[in-house]
Write a structure and sequence with these properties.
Belongs to the RbfA family. The chain is α+β, with helices and mostly antiparallel strands and about 150 residues long. The chain contains four helices and three strands. The radius of gyration is 26 Å and the shape is elongated.
Length: about 150
């Protein structure tokens, strides 16, 4: 459970990192910059774990290339972030970047669930010709009489 201070700092870092990727360092990222899905900050506010989402889903090679590009430019990203948060934070946390694969996992689970064959449920409703009749009670045991 994160404290309120951790949550506020994480939210601030997420907004400012998105601005850094889009406005301050567009020359670093050809095409679309990675999206920031989540930022988690350590209790001492010294380390921020940044989860990145790459918008080209399905091509895992592109995902790792984008993460490598971010890791190669981590120092420049942290410096640009420091310029944005210098009035709000005393120390800019160390940034640790991770690839967020929740979108590809959700797509995989959707595909798996789409392949399931679920038979329709049997109805306990009365027959349409006699609506006053009581619904049939389901059989609980094989040797039970109706």
């Amino acid at each position: 459970m994160d404290s309120k201070r951790q949550q506020k700092v994480a939210s601030l870092l997420q907004q400012d990192l998105a601005a850094v990727f889009q406005r301050d360092l567009p020359h670093v990222f050809p095409g679309l910059p990675p999206g920031i899905t989540l930022v988690r900050v350590s209790p001492d506010l010294g380390v921020a774990r940044v989860y990145l989402s790459v918008l080209t889903v399905g091509n895992s090679g592109s995902d790792t290339q984008q993460l490598d590009l971010v890791l190669d430019n981590a120092k420049e990203i942290r410096q640009a972030l420091a310029k944005r948060v210098r009035k709000q934070l005393r120390i800019v946390p160390e940034l640790v970047f991770f690839l967020d694969d929740s979108a590809s996992y959700a797509a995989h689970m959707d595909q798996v669930l789409g392949q399931l064959h679920i038979p329709p449920a049997t109805s306990n409703e009365p027959a349409p010709d006699n609506p006053d009749a009581a619904p049939k009670r389901p059989k609980l045991f094989a040797d039970e009489d109706e």
